[in-house]
Fold each of these.
Amino acid sequence: MLRWVYSLKLKGECMSKTLIAYMSVSGQTKCLAKNLATAAHNANLYEIKPKAPYTSDDLNYRNKESRCTIEMTVPGWRPELAEHIDTSAYDTIFVGFPIWWGKAPTLVNSFLESIDTKEKRIALFATSGGSPVTLSWRFLKDSAPEAEFIGQKRFDSHTSVEDLKTWLEEIGY
C-alpha cells in the first residue's frame, strides 16, 4: 500500500496539508480533535461553530421545540456558520462531531456545503455515548459529493494519539 505524505516544504519547514475540522459543544470532540491533529503530524485545527452559539436550552433534545431538535428533524435545515474557512490548500480534511439523533449535527452539513470538496479526501470521526458513526456518512456524502470519503470511526474522547495513529494507517493516511 502506498502511503501518501501530506506536507509541503516551505523555507525548510513542513506545512501541513491536512485539516482537522471539528464541531464540539461539550469539549469531548475538541479533545479528540487535538489528539488527532498530533497523530496526523500536527495537522491544522479548525472549530466548526454556529453563528448563534448553542445554549443549554438549545441542546435539550427532550424538548421538541428546542433548537437542536428542530435542526435535526426538519429536512434540509442548515444552521449558519460563525465563519468560513478557505480549504483550498488542504488535500485531506478530517471532520469530527458529536453524534446527535444517530448522525452528524446539521451544522456539519453546513460546513461541508460551504467548502470546495472537489478532489478532497475526507475522513469522519465522532464522539458518542454509544451510537455508531455509520449513519453519518450517508447524510454527509450528499453535502460533499465530489469528495472521496476514506474512513469513519467513533472514538472515546480521550483516545490516545497512538490509537489514532493506528486508525490513520488503517485508512491509508
Note: Residues 28-39 form the longest helix (12 residues).
Amino acid sequence: MVFVMKASRAAATGKLVVVIDDDALVLEATESLLRSWGFRVVTGESYSAAMARLREIGERPDLIICDYRLSEGPTGLDAIAMLRHLFEIPALLISADGSLPQSDDGAYRLLHKPVNVEAFRALVDASVVQR
C-alpha cells in the first residue's frame, strides 16, 4: 500500500492544477499547499481570471479545483463544465453547502468544507494519476 501511494504521488509531481476560488486567502493557501506537494498551479478568483492565466501560459491543466460559490461570474459547477468542455479533465468541487449532490455523470468529485487535508491530497493524487 505504501508503494502505491508513493508511486501515485511521484506521478502527480509537475502536473498543472487550476484553482478557482473568490476568497483570496483560501486561494493563496490552496496554491501554497499544492505547490508544496510538487504541483504547478494556476489560480483565478473567477472562471474568467483563471482562463486568462491559462491562455497566458498556453498549457492544458491536468485538474480543476473549484469552489462552488463564486462572487463573480458563473458558479463553480458552471466553471467546471466550461473548463471540462475545453479540456476534458477531472475536477474537484469544494462547497460548504451540504445539500449539493455528488456528480451523477462523474463531472466532478465533491468535497465538503471544512476539507480534510489527507482526504484532499488523496483525491488530488487519484484525479491526476487517473489521466
Note: Residues 24 and 127 are 24 Å apart (CA to CA).
Amino acid sequence: MNHKRIHPVDLMTTKTADICILDVRTAAEVKAAGLPDCLHIPLHELTPARLQEEITKHGKNGSCVYLLCQGGKRAEMAADHLNGKINAELVVIEGGMNAVKQANIPLAANGKKVIPLERQVRIAAGLLVITGAVLGSWFNPAFYGLSAFVGAGLVFAGITDICPMGMLIAKAPWNR
C-alpha cells in the first residue's frame, strides 16, 4: 500500500516535543544512531496495542505517527501492519535513517558500530550458500540443497518484500 510520506528535513522543521516518531529498526541499530525523543518498537514486536501504550507512556501526540527505519521498507511494512488498526495518520519518513544522515540532522548515538540488518542478511545468506557448496562438493551432493534453499528464500524475499531470514536475524541477541 502507498502511504503518505515526508522528507526528514520537512519533518524536522515542524518537529515539536510531543511529535510521535516511531523507529521500527532493531535495538542495536537504534543504539548505534537514532533521532532523539523517538519511540522505539522493532518491527517484529510492533502491535497496535504496544504502540498505543508507548504513545501514552511517553506523552506523545498520537494523532499522527511518523514511521522511521533504515531505508524505508520496514517503515512501509509497519504502516501496512498498522493501517486501519489505530486511530492515527501514518506517515513514512522518506529514505529512513539514510536520508536523515544525508540531511545532516543531529543524531543521538552511543558510538557503538553495528552492522545494519540488511548487511547481516547478505552475510548470512552468502555463508550458507558457500557452506552448501563446499559440503556438497566434499561430502555429499545433498548439501547442494542448502544453497538452493537459500537461493529460493532470496527470490521469495525479492518478490514479496518479506524476508524470513531478516526477521530471524532481527531477533538475534546482538540485535537487541
Note: The two ends are 29 Å apart (CA to CA).
Amino acid sequence: MNTIKSSLTLNDVSFQFTSQSSPFFKNITLAFAPGLVHFIQGQNGVGKSTFFRILQGRIEGNEIASGSIS
C-alpha cells in the first residue's frame, strides 16, 4: 500500500489587520516538507502567533487575508 505524503504550502499569502493598515505579511510563499519537524522562531511582536492564526483560519473582524493554503 502506497501512502501519499503531502506538504503544507502557502502561496502568495498576505495579511493586514484592517483595510487601512499596511500589510503585515505580503505575498508569502512557503512549503513545509513532509516528514520533517519545522519550527518558527523570532522576537516578540514579529508575527508568529498571527502566522499560526492565519494557518488555523482564525481571522477576526476587520482582518483581511488573501492567498491560498493547501
Note: The mean pLDDT is 88.
